TrEMBL record:
Belongs to the peptidase M17 family. Residues 308-315 form the Cytosol aminopeptidase domain. Signal peptide: none annotated. It comes from Psychromarinibacter halotolerans. SUPFAM superfamilies: Macro domain-like, Zn-dependent exopeptidases. This is Leucyl aminopeptidase family protein. It comes from the Bacteria. GO terms for molecular function: aminopeptidase activity. Keywords: Aminopeptidase, Hydrolase, Manganese, Protease. The keyword Manganese applies. The keyword Manganese applies. Gene3D superfamilies: Leucine Aminopeptidase, subunit E, domain 1 (3.40.220.10), Zn peptidases (3.40.630.10).
């Protein structure tokens, strides 16, 4: 799979982008045979409508794509990706000048439309290719597409082939590709090195729990990414019903997303010192599984009462965040498929996030809006702090009542970040439930592009 732009050549087919409100002007400017062809095919500039204009020799002379109205485009993202999926397999060159925001978004969407997950069966060809439009940073967009493809591949792979050991292997492969250093603490060594909650959550699985610690870059501001790597979540002894367990291969979506983001940062050679921490576990059931009402002592020394073994993601993240906080970085970000409450609040398409610094939150919001990576800031609501304090221990991993589940999870994690001023937590979904432009059904990255866009301003690069 090659999510790259095609090389320009005389054979590249001209591609016109025609907004609905400009279709009459575009049609009038065409030769008579094209005007008649457009009329005969009902080409009206509707969003995603494709007109293939034949050449006299039977080949393709040009193509036109409907760009709809501004209201149409506001309802979704990656408008040109609709055309990529239906245009004949060939190489196209954009001959319409788009506004910079539309140009970059749609060039990236075209690349992402070529993604295929082909590990287990032959897939359809990648389809129509595009020459990099004038004015886009092709290297940047290709790096973003490559990182997103890594994220999607990791999430789409089922747990039989993407357990903690395989996730470690994927991280090692990435480290080799980008020239990063990597250390992994596994099994009983987690107890020796004081990661008790990572060990407790993962000790019942066949593949041992582990903490992956990857470092890249030697100069510049420090950035630490922490990703939840629960490779499958049965719910533990508080076992999930079958309907809720069906998508749990994606419960390592936070880890997949930070690894994809790390790939983007390193490929673009951003002047930062990057650290990636991934607690990789499988939350399974066995005689040595951790139990409801157990009290665990975390790396930070805070005690945690277990009131639901299915609220395990915050436990493994807590130990990893405590480690990160021992060497405060200029920016700390955690990403996790953490709560169903976040999905109820904002649906599957938006990445909700929390930030300890208002300027950081504003930068992430602005970046997400600028590049069509939708994010939404959620509040660290102080009055809910007492909901995560059970009385018998310092913290409760699953407050009763069912209210504010995403907020209380974020407040729980914040207790483990006391020395790092700029910290953001993303409670993502990591899954596209139905096909959409540039996003086939399956694993998907959320928030990574917004973070990448925000980094220069946040860190003063």
């Amino acid at each position: 799979m090659s999510l790259r732009f095609a090389s320009d050549s005389p054979d590249a087919i001209p591609l016109h982008v025609v907004p609905k409100d400009d279709v009459e002007g575009w049609t009038a400017a065409q030769p008579e045979r094209v005007r008649q062809w457009a009329q005969a095919n009902g080409f009206d500039g509707s969003l995603g409508k494709v007109l293939v204009i034949p050449a006299e020799d039977g080949g393709i002379d040009a193509a036109a794509v409907g760009f709809g109205t501004a209201a149409d485009r506001a309802r979704g993202r990656f408008a040109l990706a609709r055309a990529q999926a239906v245009l004949p397999d060939a190489t196209y060159r954009l001959v319409t000048e788009l506004e910079p925001g539309h140009r970059d978004e749609n060039a990236l969407g075209w690349l992402l439309s070529r993604y295929r997950f082909g590990r287990y069966r032959a897939t359809a060809p990648e389809g129509a290719a595009l020459v990099a439009p004038d004015g886009v940073d092709a290297d940047r967009l290709e790096a973003i597409a490559g990182g997103e493809a890594l994220t999607r591949d990791l999430i789409n792979t089922p747990a039989a082939d993407m357990g903690p050991d395989a996730l470690e292997e994927a991280a090692r492969d990435l480290a080799s590709d980008i020239g990063a250093e990597i250390q992994v603490t596994t099994g009983g060594a987690l107890l020796d090195d004081n990661f008790p909650m990572i060990h407790a959550v993962g000790r019942a699985a066949a593949s041992a729990p582990r903490l992956i610690d990857m470092r890249w870059g030697t100069e510049g501001p420090t950035v630490t990414l922490v990703g939840k790597g629960v490779c499958f979540d049965t719910g533990g002894l508080n076992i999930k019903p079958g309907a809720s367990m069906g998508l749990m291969k994606k419960d390592m979506g936070g880890a997949a997303t930070v690894l994809g983001l790390a790939s983007m940062i390193a490929t673009l050679k951003l002047p930062v010192q990057l650290r990636v921490l991934v607690p990789a576990v499988e939350n399974n059931i066995a005689g040595n599984a951790f139990r409801p009402q157990d009290i665990l002592t975390s790396r930070k020394g805070l005690t945690v009462e277990i009131n639901n073994t299915d609220a395990e993601g915050r436990l493994v993240l807590a130990d990893a965040l405590a480690l990160a906080d021992e060497t405060p970085s200029d920016l700390l970000i955690s990403m996790a498929t953490l709560t169903g409450a976040a999905r109820v609040a904002v649906g599957p398409d938006i990445a909700p996030f929390y930030a300890t610094d208002p300027a950081l939150a504003a930068a992430i919001r602005a970046a997400g809006n600028a590049i069509a990576d939708p994010v939404w800031e959620m509040p660290y609501h102080q009055p809910y702090e007492e909901m995560i304090e059970p009385g018998i221990a310092d913290l409760d991993n699953a407050p009763k009542g069912g209210f504010a589940g995403s907020i209380t999870a974020a407040l729980f994690l914040r207790r483990f970040v006391t020395e790092t001023p700029r910290y953001a937590h993303f409670d993502i979904y990591g899954w596209q439930p139905s096909p959409a432009p540039a996003r086939p059904k399956g694993g998907v990255g959320q928030g990574a592009r917004a973070i990448l866009q925000a980094l220069p301003g946040v860190l003063g690069l």
